[in-house]
Amino acid sequence: MKKLFVKKVRPEYPPLAQQARIAGKCIIRIVIAADGSLRDAKLVSGHPLLAVSAMRAARESKYRPYLVERNPVEVEGEVEFDIP
């Protein structure tokens, strides 16, 4: 999915994860509606202390409508968020 984001929100580093020195990637499965709005988001993988921050970033990000033959369609995919 090229040019997926209009605006990708960077996840916050949760204080508890920071204290425990936990960092890493979270993968979120998203469903983008034909109008570009986020219809659904679910955690695929990532540390539980980082997951809430990654999910919040996925929900706050803005997405482009996905076009097939110039027509917007609903699409499902995965996005990755790195949390320091």
Write the layout of secondary structure elements.
Layout: E1 5-7, H1 15-19, E2 24-32, E3 38-45, H2 48-60, E4 62-63, E5 66-68, E6 71-73, E7 75-83
Antiparallel strand pairs: 1-4, 2-3, 2-7, 5-6
* Total count of domains: 1
The level 1 CATH classification is Alpha Beta
- CATH homology group: TonB
Mean pLDDT: 95
Can you name the CATH architecture?
2-Layer Sandwich
Shape descriptor reads: elongated
Strand order of the largest sheet: 3-2-7
List the main descriptive attributes of the protein structure presented here.
2 helices; about 20% helix; two-stranded antiparallel sheet; about 45% strand; about 80 residues; TolA/TonB C-terminal domain; 7 strands
What would your notes on this structure say?
The chain is α+β, with helices and mostly antiparallel strands and 84 residues long. The chain has a single domain (5-83), classed as TolA/TonB C-terminal domain (2-Layer Sandwich). The chain is 21% helix and 44% strand. It contains two helices and seven strands, in the order E-H-E-E-H-E-E-E-E. The protein has helices at 15-19, 48-60, and strands at residues 5-7, 24-32, 38-45, 62-63, 66-68, 71-73, 75-83. A three-stranded antiparallel beta sheet has the order 3-2-7, with helices on one face. A two-stranded antiparallel ribbon has the order 1-4. A two-stranded antiparallel sheet has the order 5-6. Strand 5 (66-68) and strand 6 form a beta hairpin. The longest helix has 13 residues, at 48-60. The protein is elongated and about 50 Å long. The model has no long low-confidence stretch (mean pLDDT 95).
